[in-house]
Amino acid sequence: MAQHIIVTDYDPRWPAEYEKESEKIKAILGENCVAIYHIGSTAVPGLAAKPIIDIMPVVRSLEKTDQKSSEFEKEGYEYLGEFGIRGRRYLRKGQDERTHQVHIFEEKNKADITRHLAVRDYLRTHREAAEQYGCLKTELAKVYPYDIEGYCDGKEEFVKKLEQEALLWKGEQ
């Protein structure tokens, strides 16, 4: 069954969901975990989002992370390796009706870490951009309710521009 793309109003329970899941992830990663962040749309108060909690652990070693794949699987995660982004480990929970996504990067991967945090922080402080993004996602979910590629393609130009603006705002470009 294809993933059903649903965009909902912001849910104030999302930060607590992040905290709960991040504790499980930190326990699995142990001392390899340097930091862990709530990223993505559910990390932006007031932003409409797919109800999927995005979590970004930063680790010392991806190799040590790979050794923990079976522990993640016991917690219900699919461990999918790089999954299209070099230097990342991607995990998801909830099959097609996903509930959590985990994007793990090594601490030396400053570009991807900075990019994710800059976009999150920019949207938290730039209400108009967040509203535009929420409206776009809501409309795309109506047009592509079972087509994740169409949904993502529809956001691509906006997200690229958003990333550039966020990095400039953060002084990273």
UniProtKB/TrEMBL annotation:
Signal peptide: none
Protein name: GrpB family protein
TM regions (residue ranges): none
Organismal lineage: Bacteria, Bacillati, Bacillota, Clostridia, Lachnospirales
InterPro entries named in the record: GrpB/CoaE, NT_sf
Top-level taxonomic group: Bacteria
PANTHER family documented for this protein: GRPB DOMAIN PROTEIN (AFU_ORTHOLOGUE AFUA_1G01530), GRPB FAMILY PROTEIN
